[in-house]
Structure formats: C-alpha cells, structure tokens
C-alpha cells in the first residue's frame, strides 16, 4: 500500500512512499527476484537465475518467500512490480504476474522503475548480502557482494544493456540523508547519446549497459562500478521506497523508445 504523505517534488509524478505488507516482483534483467516486506523491511527474498525458467519459477518463489516470512497471502496489502525498462520478455513476466496476483486478490497494483531499483541495489542488499551469479542455480544467495557507498550525497547513472549498441538509462542523486532525486529521466539510446547529454560530474555509472561500454564511459572521465552494482532486484524496489498505484487492467510496463537528441 502507499502512505498518504505528500510526494516529494523530485520523484516521478504519482509516486508515494510504500507502507504495510508489500509483495515485490522484479524480472527486467538476467536475475529475477521476489521479496516480501513490511514497512520497508524485507522479510524474505528469492533470486531466479536459471535462464529460461523465470516465468515458471516466479509464482513458486512468491509462495516460498511468504512461507519463509510467515506472512499469509491474505496479509499482503499490495503487489509491487518493476515497471522496466529491460528485456521485453523479462519485464512482461513480472508485469503479468503482478497484475494477475493483484486482480485475483483485489489488491492495489504498485509500480516503480527498474532503473531506480538498480540504483539502490547496494543499499537494498547491504554489504553482507550476496547476490547470485546470473548463471548459477536458483537460491537465496551466491558469490557476488557489493560495496555500499556511504557519506555525502552521490550521483548514480544506471545503464541497462538494450543490445545492438543501445542502452536504457536514468540518473539519480542518493544519500546524504535526503530523499532520492531523479536527475535524468529514464531514456533509451546509445551510450554516445547518453554521454552527450553531459551527465553530472562525478556520476558513478553502473549496470550491464555500463559494463558493456566501460571503455567509452571511462574515456569520458567517469567511473564504472563493477557488477553487481546496478542490478535491479525486488529488494531494490522496496529500498527505493516509492511507487505509483496503477490500474490493474490497463497498465503496461515501460518500453522506452530510443532517446532523440533535443527531445
């Protein structure tokens, strides 16, 4: 469910703070995930890493996290989905599953950007929570761990690999004891187009799109954080902490067209 507090002006229109018992689903990239949280604290999670099995494993993963957390399905107050962008097939898995669950249980359907979830992946999982390698068996964790950036406010530019030299991206200001701020709205295009938009100085690039074009980004004077920073997860959706309620029947995921210079 959503808190009734007024939406900060720096967040996407319609987003409000999360509250209550929320079931989150995120499948925009290689790693799919499901998590259940109460008032922003994740109680249980599952990662889905076996290629081609995300669709068949997502609902069983939902059952597993609810059972592990001791939360009956009837106690869930809202379903939260990663809205994309990302893999067309992947984004639709979470979207269709979330719409189906919300409709069947007569619950609010909440959505938030998968790019925003990826931007807070370090804080979402913490320095000790391991994120699984995309190609190992499904499970609660794996061999990857990430650095949590602390201290003053910093800027993160998330790029998802859209293939054929293109990316999906967005830029956020985080930390410093302040609410997150969207500096560059989600967009599609090439890395060159992204860099030509003059990203904020000191921006940390992350995500599989940044890694795919690491040499070019570093040549432009920016730092690229190694995986798994920039990986969208259900934990990240919860950590982002804000979502928009949408119509369960008509909502569709975010499919970005390539960004056009001057637009």
Task: Give an overview of the whole structure.
This protein is an alpha/beta fold. The protein has two domains: 16-142 and 231-246, ATPase, nucleotide binding domain (Nucleotidyltransferase, domain 5); 154-224, Nucleotidyltransferase, domain 5. It has eight helices and twelve strands. The chain has helices at residues 54-69, 88-105, 114-119, 121-125, 191-196, 208-212, 214-219, 234-240; strands spanning 16-17, 21-26, 32-38, 41-48, 78-82, 109-112, 154-163, 166-174, 181-190, 204-206, 223-224, 242-246. It has a seven-stranded mixed sheet with strand order 1-12-6-5-2-3-4, sandwiched between helices. A five-stranded mixed sheet has the order 9-8-7-10-11. Helix 1 (54-69) crosses helix 2. The longest helix has 18 residues, at 88-105. It is globular. Mean pLDDT is 86; it is low at 4-9, 135-145 and 258-263.
Short description:
The protein is α/β, with parallel strands linked by helices and 263 residues long. It has helices at 54-69, 88-105, 114-119, 121-125, 191-196, 208-212, 214-219, 234-240; strands spanning 16-17, 21-26, 32-38, 41-48, 78-82, 109-112, 154-163, 166-174, 181-190, 204-206, 223-224, 242-246. Helices cover 26% and strands 27% of the residues.
